[in-house]
Specification:
binds nicotinamide-adenine-dinucleotide, globular, 434 residues, 6-stranded parallel beta sheet
Length: 434
Amino acid sequence: MKVVMIGAGYVGLVSGACFAEFGANVICVDKDEFKINALQQGDIPIYEPGLDDLVSRNVEAGRLNFTVELRQAVENADLVFIAVGTPTRRGDGHADLKYVYAAAEEIATYLKGYTVIVDKSTVPVGTAREVQRIIKKTNPDACFDVASNPEFLREGSAIGDFLRPDRVVLGCESGKAEKLLRELYRPLNLIEAPIHVTNLESAEIIKYASNAFLATKISFINEMSQLCEKVGADVHSVAKGMGLDGRIGKKFLHAGPGYGGSCFPKDTLALIRIAQEHGVSSRIVESVVEVNASQKARMVTKIRSALGGSEADKIIAVLGLTFKPETDDMRDAPSLAILPALIDRGAIIKSHDPEGMEEAKKLLPDSMGFMESVEETIKDADAVVLMTEWNQYRGLDLANVKSLMKGNVFIDLRNVYEKDVMLQHGFEYTCVGR
Ligand SMILES: NC(=O)c1ccc[n+]([C@@H]2O[C@H](COP(=O)([O-])OP(=O)(O)OC[C@H]3O[C@@H](n4cnc5c(N)ncnc54)[C@H](O)[C@@H]3O)[C@@H](O)[C@H]2O)c1
């Protein structure tokens, strides 16, 4: 089976490499020459655990190739996936579909023989039909079907998620297209991964509804964390007690600095706009977005009060900048909202992140320090803020941390440490909802 993946970003590159691992012949096409050159030389442009091995194994086997040339790839393809970005459109919160539509137009010109065009990008309801219309208009003789196959992988565990998914969703209205897609995903039959086939609109909604629901769980527990702090409850224990109920489930009930990343923030906003466009209210999702913004603001206040009411001239050591561990993705990371607010009020920030530093430097104020090691970051700090729970910050040598610091304030925004232990080590310890 010949597969083309348009877009070799977090989703396109992982999906392309995993389809090659399934046995398909995959060509990843990207407009970014720098990215394609790197990939052709065996360099992986993003940090995703296990991706370098997966890519090199499949390149060596001759099943995975990279190019900027769309024509030849598309002419020979059975399936062309669109996995380009759908960022928030500047100013209005809508998903910006310009990359998807441009890709559709480019693909249309080169179609030869029957081909299935598959939307893998997260796109508003109605996009697959618009892609269909664009292709038909650009190339009236093309023989094709359009399908929707939203992606549910999580950065940091993307390969495992793709190779062992909870489900595969196919929005598909032609038997021929469904047969090809089922054939592509056939290796998943072995692990009995459910393939859920539905119409185009339902597949598109499933992706947004799933992300909005997960974001709701996070905002819900973050709201509860505030109440817990006021009444002397422990949000960790509350989440555990809730999560043991099978109807609720324990995942996505960790209180923290608010959700971030390349999906939840933009997808919740886009869902609100989609609902508005169709004259339907989305009050729950609107509240989820509001609670998330206020949770980030609450973290600034929390840090300020832990520092005695003012962060001016205080040295704050920040551990972790990415929106979660095991990725270098900085898109909408809570650090991007929290740290500039502290710097504006005179804080002196030194920071460390195992993989996200290069991206972080582009997005955070130049006045911040980006340090090579945890020790350098912590040295002489008045306070440590644990922003992202990378493994290397979970087992810090607390006595060493304390001796390197000037002050003794430890603000744990991920509830990694136990209060008793921190007090025993002489820290003034603050966390979220406990
Ligand atoms: N990142 C995630 O965790 C994740 C998870 C599930 C779904 N998604 C969705 O998948 C889509 C892609 O996300 P991403 O994080 O991989 O984005 P990304 O920004 O990492 O990658 C997109 C790539 O597409 C390329 N591109 C844009 N237009 C192109 C064109 N016409 N031809 C060839 N290449 C083109 C860009 O150069 C870029 O390399 C988005 O809709 C996103 O919402 C992302």
